[in-house]
Amino acid sequence: MPKIRRARAALAATTLAIAGVVGGVEAAAGSAASQPTLVVYSAQGYDHAMVAAFTKATGIPTKLDDNSTGPLLTQIEASKNNPNWGLLWVDGDTAFAGLDQQHLLMRGFEPSVSWDALGKQVVPTDKSYTPTGVTLMAAMVYDSTKVPSPPTSWQQLLSSQWKGDVGMNDPSQSGPTFPFIAGMMNYLGSEAAGKSYFSKLKSNGLVVNPTNGPTLQALSNGQIKLALVQSSAGIGAAIGDKSLKVKYLNPATLLPSCIGIDAKAPAAVQQEAEKFIEYVLSPAGQKVMQSGDPTGDSLYYPVIDGVKPLPALPSLAGVKTQRIDPYKWGGLEASINTWFDSNIK
Amino acid sequence: MRVGVPSAGAVLPALFWLVLVLIILLPCLAFLVLAVSPRLFDQGNSYFTLHYLGSVFTGQTAVAITNSLWVSAVAAAIGVVIGFPLAWVTARTDVPLRGPITASMWLVLLLPSWLPSLGWVRLVQVDGVMYRVGLDLPFVTHAILGPFGVVLVLGIRNVPFAFLAITAALAGLGQEFEDAARVHGASRLEAIRVVAPIIAPAIWSAIAIGFAEAVSDFGVAATLAYPANFSLGTYQLYAAINNFPPSFPTAASMAWLLVASVGIPLALQARALRGRSYAVLSGRSRQIVRRRLTVRGKAIALGAIGFFLLIALGVPALGAVSGSLLADYGGSFTLTTANYSALFQSSALIAPVVRSLEYGAITATFTVVLGYIAARFLTRTKTRATRFLDFLLLAAVAVPSVIFAAGYIMAYNLPFLSHIGINLYQTVGLLIIAYAASSLPTNARVLVGSVSQLQASLQDSARVHGAGPVIAWLRGVAPLISRPLLFAWLLTFTAVFLELPISQLLYAPSQPPVSVAIEDNLSNYHFGVGTAQSVFAVLLALVIVLCVLGAYRLLAPRGWRRIGASHA
């Protein structure tokens, strides 16, 4: 009967589908076991372009796990007794310091490049990771048609003139925001002094949004007049809206994008990973970084001599930058974020 | 003789339990054990400690867990209170547009929970849409951006679960029960009161699944509750994992509490249904006679349903539109199609979409087979094994997906497996198995309502007439539950298509599913394009749901469609 034939066909299809899944598992298991491949864990906007360019230039097959920083670090921590990654490439060096302290990063590798002034500031002494670019945290974004005279110092944000006008991100949800908070504590001399500063900012009507997007939206709809966000996000917004301007207050905290090699990866994979880093910092690699995500992560300040930032980036002439010690401040991240959520948000 | 399951002796139950242990129990326990023994998986120094379990009963975590419990209970109740009348009107009356109403419920179900939250925030936030159209209502802002709004959004999300479970049960409930009540002088309302207890399994199933879904939800917890300083358990759990270094033992301790909490609705369910049989669907079930509504009755019914759908779908649409069609981060009313142009000019999205369609279809097929078997076990005479299965499946719903995925890494990325050449972590196979495992509990729950109504006589009669067990099942049982099975397939398909936490942690490198591709844009400041991708993916899922329903209508035998139809 036709009904029965149809049902039999459905049953057969189900069986085939399940068999296909199991077959897929076996096939994947077999291929993974025979030849370890370089797997890049990355949260960078230009990583697709970079992996494709690297494979094309070197012939080394490379796989990409493109995720937000949080899930990538969760994967690394959950799989640390049998890691699957070869390279980690994300913004911020505090996470790398934490991984280094757990001995999860290969130490002692430094690519043969000439660092510029920014690069020299952020290279770690034990060479457990490599900076590939720098953004600043926080950049102040404002609408020049509504704010003709923006503040010129961090202290001015506490004045009544800017009451209710300042917005920033929540460090629990926005990765780059903790380095900003830690940077202010570093600049003001202590954790307590930094907490006092943010408490005063709150008393002056600070608006806290989850991440860069909502904070810039609050600026756009007039809820705030000054948005404190990551420089690449602010500059990207200014490219789309010419009335938005980006200004740095002294000191601005350096937020390096870094790349590190898995200490437990097979030696062959580690060698491929070193070649990947060399390629990223080569002139060809820098071109890929600057063209792969032109309104997002490509808006970074280079760390290599002779590489100029994209024209949209404001000059750093006259801007005082600071680096926070990732090994010191990384260990305080959880407690400071909890304090911020309980007292400032 | 058993009903419904093609006889395969004792092998099938054993195989079924083995599969459950491997795909649900083992990964969940691998993570949950970290609460007391973090050193087992290299996540701490102690082989045994109660420190982490003790810590969740103090401070912010205790507050968040308490919030989760009462919010989930109220949300489950809201789901049934709204879902029951909607289901009754759709299944038992001649209200117009029954097909679109059912399709709309599916749309509510397949929306990711953060989309309604985002819509509400954009609607009522200071200087949001509400204020711009001249409605200066700060008390509404205060109410929505707080516990009331959280309960409202989660409650609305639970309505489709109740609607589908109750609609399926009502559709299998012949007219004879209402007729009997009416013959004995009962009014229409009294007839409903007679019939309602007969579909108690479906109602309790909806309450239990609603509670478990709400207690494990992360989308609303992150986008609506947390920014409003109303912390829920899943957010605290996420924070424990997302802080660096992550505290898996703390997250596991919180997950224990969430898992234990589903014992509450299960205990209530067991108490309410103890010792009763709800098998009403037999070969003699009579076709439903829909109550003919007056014009006024139809207007009232459609008005109420329309109001619900406006809230359930209109607000999320606002969030999506404001995010994807407005150029300046949704801050003005200037419309632009730039984000959609960028979306369709990029070929990078196409491959993830196709991949997720494949993953969804394979997972849904696999899950429906397992879900049906699980539902059969659950509706048998209660034994310790079925009670354990009931708890296991509901507890698995309450386990947040991020825990589930991390548990898969712990369980299937052990060094000894690699030493013998088995590397499952970050393969398509393990991802699909994890999808199936996370979908199975909800799937089985949706099917329980319908499967519990099957009488043994259906398959017995086919066997008496000489059919083998498989043919007897196909002839006697499949026609009656083809529609619930189809809905269960669609539910899993849509859930997998847009699933994020498991995808993020387990996807095979260089083969991202669509949800990871979308998140990639959202997290890299391409907010407009990312939201446009979300809208496109949701619409695509809806189109596929409609195509599958249309194909069923065209291709399935007439008898299959007649029984179990809610809008025939």
Overall description:
The complex is a heterodimer of chains A (345) and B (568). Chain A is an alpha/beta fold. Chain A contains 13 helices and eleven strands. Chain A has two domains: 32-134 and 256-311, 3-Layer(aba) Sandwich (D-Maltodextrin-Binding Protein, domain 2); 137-253 and 330-343, Periplasmic binding protein-like II (D-Maltodextrin-Binding Protein, domain 2, 3-Layer(aba) Sandwich), CATH 3.40.190. The longest helix of chain A has 33 residues, at 2-34. By secondary structure, chain B is an all-alpha fold. Chain B is 71% helix and 0% strand. In chain B, helix 4 (98-110) packs across helix 8, helix 14 packs across helix 19 (384-398) and helix 22 crosses helix 25 (478-497). At the A-B interface, helix 1, strand 2, helix 3, helix 4 and helix 8 of A face helix 13, helix 18, helix 20, helix 21 and helix 22 of B.
Calculate the terminal CA-CA distance of chain A, rounded to whole Å: 68 Å
CATH superfamily of the largest domain in chain A: Periplasmic binding protein-like II
Q: How would you classify the quaternary structure?
A: heterodimer
Overall radius of gyration of chain B = 24 Å
Number of DSSP helices of chain B? 29
Sketch the topology of chain B as an H/E string, one letter per element.
HHHHHHHHHHHHHHHHHHHHHHHHHHHHH
Q: How would a crystallographer describe the biggest sheet of chain A? A: 6 strands, mixed
* pLDDT averaged residue by residue of chain B: 82
Question: Domains counted in the coordinates of chain A: how many?
Answer: 2
What percent of the residues of chain B sit in helical stretches (DSSP H or I)?
Answer: over 70%
Biggest interface = A-B, 82 and 75 residues
Large-scale geometry of chain A: globular
> CATH superfamily assignment of chain B?
MetI-like
Distance linking N and C termini of chain B: 33 Å
